[in-house]
Amino acid sequence: MKSNSDEIILDEQQNASNTDWIKEQDRVEMVTKLLQRLIAERVDEAGFIKEDIVAIRRHFWDDVTVNFEDAAETAETLASMKQQAEVLSERERSHRHMEKQLKTYQRLVDSPYFGRVDFVEDGDPAGAEAIYLGVGSLYDEQSGEYLVYDWRAPISSLYYDYGPGAVLYKTPETTIQGEMTLKRQYIIQQSQIKSMFDAGVTIGDEMLQQVLGKNASAKMKSIVATIQQEQNKIIRNEQARLLVVEGAAGSGKTSAALQRAAYLLYRHRGHLAADQIVFFSPNPIFNSYIATVLPELGEENVEQTTYQQYLEHRFARQYTVIDLFSQMEYALTAHQEVGYDDIMEMVAYKSSYAFMQRINDYVDDRSKQGMLFRAIKFRGEVIISKEYIAEQFYALDPTISIANRLKLLVTQLLKQITQIAKEERKKSWVDEELELLDPDEYSEAYEKLQNKGSYQSQSFDDFNSERDYLATRIVSRYFKKTRRLIKMLRFVHIDAMYRQLLQQCNFSDYALQHTLTNMNQRMIPYEDATAYLYFKEKLTGFHTNTLIKHVFIDEAQDYSVFQFHYLKRIFPNSKWTVLGDPNQTIYMHSHHHSELDALASLFDEQHSERIRLSKSYRSTHEIVTFTSKIIGAEQLVEPFDRHGPEPQIMQVEQGQLLDDIVRTVQQMQQAAHTSIAIIGKTAEESKQLYEQLLPQLPSLTLIDKETASFDKGIAVIPVYLAKGVEFDTVIVHNASAEYYSKEADKWLFYTACTRAMHELSIFYTGTKTPFMPM
Ligand SMILES: Nc1ncnc2c1ncn2[C@@H]1O[C@H](COP(=O)(O)OP(=O)(O)OP(=O)(O)O)[C@@H](O)[C@H]1O
């Protein structure tokens, strides 16, 4: 077996007689036996506790003497109920704990650890202690020792940060120094050591070779055994309020982010729960691609969403949000359409910081005048006019913020509604309603009044009290919706003001009408969605979410400056981990490089950190060398030393293209590549291609924006939906100048090519794209 200079590599056959190997295998077996015993014990105990819980639930009331006769009896009843509830909840807690332990042991049993460091703490006469690292911890009660340490324990950082020699690690209380005398890695399967490497600082290339050489998977895997030193800095960073991770395609940004989430959940156990972390993904496919990583590490999944899903949630039924992919498709396919340039210019402006400032100015101006309101109507009639509401609003202290003045106004309006409701009770429509009333409501009213002692005799007065009572109920039922709408600030005419603001901007008539027509049809264009929410909340108060403690944003280069500002308002107390690669900027509202800088300006410098990942792990050396040339970053991206075939670039005749793609797919299948992506630039192109290829490739699938997940196999996919994911083989459908010629196309082309792990084939007809490396 090949060996790097600082690695001693042992494998199963070569080393059956090696004493180290035998000792290590004995230890694996000892640990496995213990795990098997613990699993059996926990299964039994969990079963008993479960039976207990069922029994307590079933007989809950048997042990409680219920007596509410007087205060003393009531207190005793409540105390005994409380006691029973406590017993139940203690049992439930034990059960949860037992289940959790069981799951950890089950995760460890086949492969209890992947690494070991021997560490001598300075001044410790006991000498070196062997620390074994795994995806959970295993404590042996008999020896009082940890047989396996969780990879996130403070001491485990030694493994990721150092090679043999002087080392240190931090615990929450102090820093511990010492010497590492050994660093070893293992591949253990079904309790058998398959390989064992003694490594230097970097976690063995051999092990990475093995991991990265495998076929692409439909689900992302955790990288816990091979986390690299630079990635570990991201994972264990505790100080930064804003952590920006920039790195080339395939440098492990997403992987490191997910490991970081797992680390934070472990480190802050009891204070941080999975639902206090939100992870923004680029698209739903990506969401499903990463969904198994945290559970694989024994953690619950964090809140995963896309920005689009967040917008849809916020607009609820008010507007349908036209999605980012439709915007993208328009940008890529509508060049010839009337008004295209106007719309593109408008989109850029609406995503900019300048537009946000314009909104701020507009809102500031409304502080003194110009707020637009809706009249409050009841049964089709205006009961409070918009002019009156405006008058009331501007009569309030102008030093109070608009949002707070609106809150005061709500209180006033609700009081007025109470008055108006009183008047309404006397009106004839109420009598008409009274006649239609269900007889049950009459009897109910009768009973209520009788209980209250309101009836004296069967007199006229009694009849009046009954009418009053029922009229009040009818009227307040009618006013319920009005009150709710007032509390929701529906009387503030946000829509009219937003339209007014748009009219004051210098958009072309065409572009303006494009937006207004959409809004008239209750659709909000993607570029307006964030601006509209910001505008609305600037007036009425921000919907902040203070429960979320960590926000992760993947593919952050695709967010606009405006979106970052908005998210910062929404999650004011969170720490942020932002991952991006400016060279994969593909959306029309973001401007290569400037977004991540703008984001940094939202946090003070002291609490911001930027980490660059320079090594690229996904693709072979040959593919990374090729793709780095597309973006002119040969010096900046360091390929991992894993080799494969050179990328194939093939000029073909138009009539030949489909047959050649099919032939390449078949070759790749013969080479045992199980996930093959044929990447188109747009959804339109991908759909056409899919239809043309289907007769020859019946197992082909088409991935479009509705696709929620993908499996292994052959798929046609537009570039922007392939973001973040990877395939064994990528076939770029047509890299001609006709498809990829503008500056922005370069990032698309780069993104497409960097999805390949093992092989890359690029076809073109006519002239090749100017971005094709020589
Ligand atoms: N330390 C590591 N050990 C093993 N595999 C790794 C490591 N780092 C990254 N990888 C692998 O490299 C591939 C790319 O990782 P990942 O998707 O996290 O990169 P990325 O920087 O987010 O890429 P992109 O920007 O292209 O979406 C994945 O298959 C991942 O498992």
UniProtKB/TrEMBL annotation:
Q: Which part of the chain is the UvrD-like helicase ATP-binding domain?
A: 226-620
Binding residues for ATP: G247, A248, A249, G250, S251, G252, K253, T254
Keyword Nucleotide-binding included in the entry's annotation:
yes
Q: Which UniProt keywords apply?
A: ATP-binding, Helicase, Hydrolase, Nucleotide-binding
NCBIfam families given in the database record? HelD_BACSU
Q: What is this protein called?
A: RNA polymerase recycling motor HelD
Lineage of the species this protein comes from: Bacteria, Bacillati, Bacillota, Bacilli, Bacillales
